[in-house]
Amino acid sequence: AGTYTIFVVHPNKERLVGQIEAKRMKYTYSLHGVGNTQSWVGSGRYAVIDLEAGPTRYGKLTQSGEGSVDASSYPRFIEYFSKDKDIKPEGATAVEIEAQISSLLISSIKFIFANDIKFEDLPAAEKVFVPIIVLKNHREDPLSSSIDFDAIKKEMKRMELPGQSIQVVTAQHYIHDHVHISMAVSRSIKSGTIVEVSPQGIYQPKYKPYMDSMMLANELRRTSDLLAGGILSKEPQIIKGAMGKVFFNPNIDGARPSLGTRVVPVYIFSLHGYANNLLLDKHFISTGYKDMVIALQTNETDVVVPFFSDNDFIKVNVTDITHHIIAGIAQTVGSLGTPVHRYSSLHKLDRSNYMWAQGRHPFGHFTTSKQMSQVMIDNIERNAVSLRVHHSVSNIHNSLNLVRHFAKMSVVDPMGDSTDEHYNTVNRLASEAEDLKFQFLKVVAALQEHRIEDAYQLANALDVTTAKFYDYVAG
Hints:
alpha/beta
């Protein structure tokens, strides 16, 4: 996959603009006019931290302030390197400075380069079929006006695993033509009074309507074939009932782990005339489930969300949702975690950190990028390797349990005499299990050397072999 790089820069402003201007100079980074940061995810296999930029303030408005970025998030080195006699050093040692920088590097690894896998069990498939289904209550055509369908297809092409193809088709339906869906939308709209903290620290009670995406997902699972509206019939290799599932060609022996078609529907609810600040699950625009993606589009361009940048609330354009759709697809198809959340084994819950919320990725409200960093594309392939290995380990674990049971019941007869035939069978199975161990080690070696594509091919072959091994033992 190549080399991963974290650029930690500390430019000398005096050399750039002179000593007088340097004292007044403050700069931050943004992408396409969006953002206000001093750390960001690059388009390639790199991330950047500028210790001289800022300071900046942004994050989510919560009482605890968890994950928010402020002046204390980055070390400030002006007192250590300035020749100005009026600036007095704070007395930090070189070790403390190194510790602060190390903390930033560890953050980039946890949230970008080796971030969480969203789903621990996703099926392998040679083909991924993605019907994008717009459910609307108006006459406009979102797929030809406000949604950049070409950008979605381009990023999905980048998500393809080696030997895999992703096919995208579209369809549109009027919600009111489907009574159950229309009722589900009405039932899913909930409201409540929540207390938000303003960027100035003032607590403000607000009435907040929102759509419950879980309720919608449950209803869509029951009516998915109806909503497909003929899409599946155009693909003869896709059977009825496959929406959100994987099916396999029963005529191909041993091909289940690698030769199959996974169907991942993307449901876009394009709604006009509802509450002005309507969002999914209080402050989201899309969400990726294991079997589907749900996104919301309205005709509102300035919806306030409980996030801030400096002293201002973040406002989102809910008509322009292309990057949110791409983010949801990356989560569902690639099991890709976001660069702002990770599971903490120490705290036994999800933790947030918005240090990497900006840059070349489509996740969250601090970016509008329709392109994913190459790091994230690599992570999708890495996730596939990890999930194949996870499935292979499960196959081996179940197989060995069966072998142990077989040995206990059959290798020794009730009179205490060994049975050579069964003993030889157990010995042969043990030898094959030992061979599988070396295949696991090859995958690990490829990952350690960042040969992600080689690791994927090895993990795929291992998945097939362990599945056959389990089928033989179980049979």
